Amino acid sequence: MVTGASGYLGSWVVAGLLEAGVSVHAAVRDPQDAARTAHLRATEERSPGRLRLFAADLLREGSYDEAMEGCAVVIHTASPFIRSVADPHRDLIAPALEGTRNVLAGVNGTPSVRRVVLTSSIAAMCGDAADLEDYPGRIVGEESWNTSSSPEHEPYSYSKTVAERLAWQMAGTQERWQLVTIHPSFILGPALNAAPTSDSFGIVGRILAGELRAGAPDIGISAVDVREVAQAHIAAAFLPRAHGRYIVSAQDTDLLGLARCLRPRFGRGLRLPRRYAPRGLVLALAPRLGLTRRYVRRNVGYALRVDASRSRRELGIRYRPVQESMEAMAAQILARAARRHSDRMTPMDTDRPARGAR
């Protein structure tokens, strides 16, 4: 079973499993929502009879029990990746924490399950880049834990941390199923779903829109392609030797480095940043940029370094260059923007009701 199966990452996990010949129970919010599940059904057409969709809700107890029935592996990808929220507890912490609790309670009640793969994050290993000053070798490793995030400061990172700690706690109370956690860095690359909600698309979209043309904040980022993240989940699900925590990341870079990846292919048509924004300016403009000043002080001007060697060695992941991921993602974002613009410019068909008519 795959949770969050219609999402950015979950869709690629489902596609990879079907391609490998695995039968998949895909848990989504509403299987009847054609707009959100069309890409899954298109994938299923290439693997007839091996994909079933089930309705499930992260916050509803027992919601995943039917989808989980008869499954040997559960891959839990469902958790919001949204950094700007009105209510951190409602929008981030509760879905991550209670969703994990509900999924694993279902696992405890499903005798067929032998392995659980949980999508965590490097955010559960490091809250602020400044934290690396106290890490061995100033690098994030599989033994690292985030101790600086809270519901008030970096609530997304906090949500991933408490959800993973709960998962390990629940795994430790039994011996039937084994837990493996996957810790992606900043996920890039194309989406299979039509309207991805991951913050990754918002951040790359801002770069493409020229919002950072005057200068990019010097924020360290480690990045990885969504297709390798999906591959890591599948390897962790089925390789007998897979165990523990795995960092999944292709390259350490920063916002300016991501923008530079786009220059060879898109540079002439886009207003891409060429320099770092002064730290003082970023600090002054932090609220307008959607950042807290504490975040700026703890992250701007600090490099982020992670060690993903274990995922290469034990899961067999071969990472593609970040430039390839950025180009594919940018091309998709720009193509969708062009289609939206074209739709707005197309004269209305008078045989159809106006938009919004009932």
Low-confidence stretches: 348-358
What's the gyration radius in Å? 21 Å
Main sheet summary: 5 strands, parallel
CATH evolutionary superfamily: NAD(P)-binding Rossmann-like Domain
Question: How many helical stretches?
Answer: 12
**How much beta, percentage-wise?**
5-15%
Q: Can you describe this structure?
A:
Keywords: Oxidoreductase. Residues 1-236 form the NAD-dependent epimerase/dehydratase domain. GO terms for molecular function: oxidoreductase activity, acting on the CH-OH group of donors, NAD or NADP as acceptor. Pfam families: Epimerase (PF01370). The chain is an alpha/beta fold. It has a single domain (2-335), classed as Rossmann fold, CATH 3.40.50. Helices cover 41% and strands 13% of the residues. It is built from twelve helices and ten strands. It has helices at 8-19, 34-45, 65-68, 88-108, 155-171, 199-208, 226-238, 255-266, 279-285, 293-299, 309-315, 322-345; strands spanning 2-3, 24-28, 51-55, 73-76, 115-119, 178-184, 186-188, 220-225, 244-248, 251-254. It starts with a strand and ends in a 13-residue tail after the last helix. Mean pLDDT is 92; it is low at 348-358.
Fold topology:
Layout: E1 2-3, H1 8-19, E2 24-28, H2 34-45, E3 51-55, H3 65-68, E4 73-76, H4 88-108, E5 115-119, H5 155-171, E6 178-184, E7 186-188, H6 199-208, E8 220-225, H7 226-238, E9 244-248, E10 251-254, H8 255-266, H9 279-285, H10 293-299, H11 309-315, H12 322-345
Parallel strand pairs: 1-4, 2-3, 4-5, 5-6, 6-9, 7-8
Antiparallel strand pairs: 8-10
Helix pairs in contact: 1-2, 1-7, 4-5, 6-12, 8-12
Keywords: Oxidoreductase
Protein name: NAD-dependent epimerase/dehydratase family protein
Domain NAD-dependent epimerase/dehydratase: 1-236
